[in-house]
Design goal:
single chain
Length: 67
Amino acid sequence: MTGDLRDAQWRKSSFSTDTGNCVEVASNLPGLRAVRDSKDVAGAVLVFGPAEWAVFVGSVKDGTLGV
């Protein structure tokens, strides 16, 4: 899934630390959510539709992401 990210308004996770282990989320994009590494803002971006975002967040919360 791709989207136009020029108007993305990025915000850091409330769980981010000062050590640089941070992710940023853009939730102002119609029908999309985007995630990036705050240390590499020009790097790769993960883009999700609503159903995919729900699965991603659920996997992070229950610890099954990457299993």
